[in-house]
Write a structure and sequence with these properties.
mainly beta; 111 residues; elongated
């Protein structure tokens, strides 16, 4: 069977530069706007949006200290790419965080 306990893609990305510091199964990253990126997978996942029975999910953190949050609700979620918005809450207001670490789990098209 398919091993769902291992990350099938991961990304360490800095919006400020913009630079991919490390990745696996990531074909490219598009820096859409402040705090928003689209990651394209080299090998796509099976399925599409969660509401339509997606077979993958993303987990991760935003911020060099892991104090940020990620949001992909209402963003593009497709078998070959996902758009994510990252932000960090401060004492005074919400700040866009430039550094994100992401890991995707699920079933790839070739599995």
């Amino acid at each position: 069977g398919v091993d769902l306990s291992k990350a099938k893609a991961w990304l360490v990305y800095d919006h400020a530069t913009p630079v991919i510091h490390a990745s696996y199964n990531i074909k490219s990253v598009t820096d859409n706007t402040t705090g928003s990126l689209t990651a394209k997978f080299a090998i796509p996942f099976k399925g599409s949006e969660l509401a339509n029975g997606s077979t993958y999910l993303v987990t991760g953190m935003s911020g060099r200290n892991g104090d940020g949050q990620l949001n992909y609700a209402g963003q593009a979620v497709e078998p070959d790419q996902m758009t994510i918005v990252s932000f960090r809450a401060s004492a005074s207001d919400a700040l866009i965080d430039t550094y994100v670490s992401l890991a995707w789990f699920g079933e790839l098209e070739n599995e």
